[in-house]
Each structure stands twice: as C-alpha cells, then as structure tokens.
Amino acid sequence: MEILKVVPLRKNLWALNEISKTIMYVVNGQNYALLLDTGFGLSPLKSVVNRLCGNRPVIVVNTHGHMDHNSGNNQFDSVYVGRYDEPESHSATDKSHIREMFFQALIKENYDLSSWNPGPCKNVRTLKDGDVIDLGDYKFDVLETPGHSIGSITLLEKNQRWLFTGDLVLTWEVWGQLKNSSTLRIYAESLERLAKLEKNVDVVFPAHGIPEKKVAGYTEYELPPEILSIYAKGVRKIVDGRDKGVEYLCMSEKMRRSYFTIGGIVFDPGRIG
Fold first, then answer.
1. Which of 13, 193, 235, 251 has its CA 20 to 30 A from that of 33?
2. Mean pLDDT of the chain, nearest integer
3. Which CATH architecture has domain 4-271?
C-alpha cells in the first residue's frame, strides 16, 4: 500500500492522500507554504512540504481536532486550529484506537509501524472567524463552521475561488455527531452560511474522498460547489423533522443516517438542538 500519494491539483496546490483515508493539502505561496491537516503522521510531512515548496516557512492548520487530521502535529513547531478545538489538540494520540479504526489494511500487509510516533504539537495557536492566513500571493479567510466538531473551520481563498471544508461535506455520509460535535441545528447553520458562498466558489476540497465514487463533476479531491446547498437543505430537513433517517450503528452507538442526492449524514436524534 502506498502510504502517501502526492497529487498535483493546480499550480502551487497539491493533495496529500494518506493511505486512502485522509486528504491533506499543500499550497505553495510567495512567502509561506500552507499545510492543511497532518493526518495520521505516518509520513515525514515537513520534508514532503519542503520538497514541493522549497524551504519556505510552513504554516500548519488543522481543519478540526480529530485524530485522523492532527496526529502528525508533533512534526512541527507550531500548529493553528479553530479556537474551540484547541483543548482537544493537546490530547495524546490514541494509537490503539487509530490502528483499530483506520489501519486494518496496513496491518493485513504487515506494515512496520514500529517507528510511527504520532502526537500533539506543544505550541497550539488558535484561529477565529475573520482571521486571514496570508501566504503572500494567496490569502485564506478563516470561517468558523461548527458541526462535525465544535471548532471546525473552513478556509476560503477568494481570488482562486477555493473552499477547503475539512469533514463538513463529503461524497459519503459524514459522521456528523461525535462526542465533540455541535448540535445538528448549529451544523445546519454552518452549512447554510457556506451555501450562500456557492456562487463565489469554483471548487470544494474535502478532507476525505472515495475514489470509486463515480458521479459527474465529483472527484476524490474536488467537489462542485453545489454540494454546499445539497448538504444545507438535507440537514435542515432533519432539523425541521421532515427527515427522520434510518437506524445506524456508529462506533457502537445507536444513531440515525440520512442520504442526500450526494453524500449524507449520521446524526444523533437526541442532539438536534
């Protein structure tokens, strides 16, 4: 199995696909490079970014504080995260949980994990709504979009019309309500906020993709902006009681699942809000 696949998407933009589970992104700016998420920390990310971008200083941002997006944080001197996910960003990485949930294929292939050393970054800085990540020629507006986690953030590059949404919208069902997720009503409000940007966005970059998903206009790394309104309308139907979903077992907990025309969501009917 290929541990890290580097995929060119645009000039100065790459996707880093880690074991076909998590997608990180690298942007090569004039003054700084941006690494969005650090995945499981299976690869030497600093050297990968340096190879792509030269020796520019690297700004590392986590879209949210979940272990499949921040376990490589300890490879860097400082990391930015949405302010409400900051407490979770100091937690020790649960290696056994990651192995059980995500590394089945690696274990089946007898991949040597003895040198895998994930963990938090000692210097965690916070981002809030309205902050700007300035790379020199690329400028990313920070949007607080609580839902999948209470501190989830979305990055918008207005000139390029790029939107990086983390786990907020996917081509398969998002696990919308985990222990540190927002109520579904707040999730809907975040989606509705992004749906209003639909005409100002050309492409949505998700943090997970399914390569075998064959839908016109959708790829593993790039989604059309219509997915924002699809999710906003779908989650609003659940909040308003017009879609009850079907029973679904999520991490040994009884949840409900609803599908949209593309994607869907797993939610807790007791946490509608």
1. 193
2. 95
3. 4-Layer Sandwich (3.60)
